[in-house]
Sequence to fold (191 residues):
Amino acid sequence: MITNTPLYPDWVMWEQELSAETCDKIIEACSELETHKATMINVEGLDPRRITQLRWIQENNEDLAWIREIVDEYTHKANEHFKVDLTDLQPIQFTEYNDSGSHYEMHHDVEWDNQRGNHRKVSFVLQLSDGDDYEGGDFCFHEHIPSPDSEALRKRGTIIAFLSYNPHCVEPMISGQRKSLVAWHLGPRWR
Fold:
């Protein structure tokens, strides 16, 4: 496990933590799910700030409960460092950046104005593609956050978990295809 140095880090990363076989199994399972075009939180319709294709693993999908277990395990391991209050896991997103120009502009994952009484606390990203399979498409944090090694983040099976209020993006794709698993663990509202 790799963290940045503070007592309460912004992110925790496990480089090439999951095997290629596990990544293949996740891709195969998620490829059977219904495809959706991506939208932004609280924006009606498609938004040019985000060009991706999504498939969702819902909480009631018992066939894919093993994927939820992986996400839950690593989110809780990361939270040993973050020490925030967590409750439940939202539906998991299988994300594909398929075309030149696919991207997700700088954003954070917290829905500040939701009325459900909770917020996203810990975000999770699992790199499913091999970094050599695509150009561009790098995940990065806003410049005020010390970023992990970009080459490590591109390695297949690498997991990064981070506090959901940290701004981050996926830079525009140049070529190839990038696949990832993205999830958010909820908790009581940020104060």
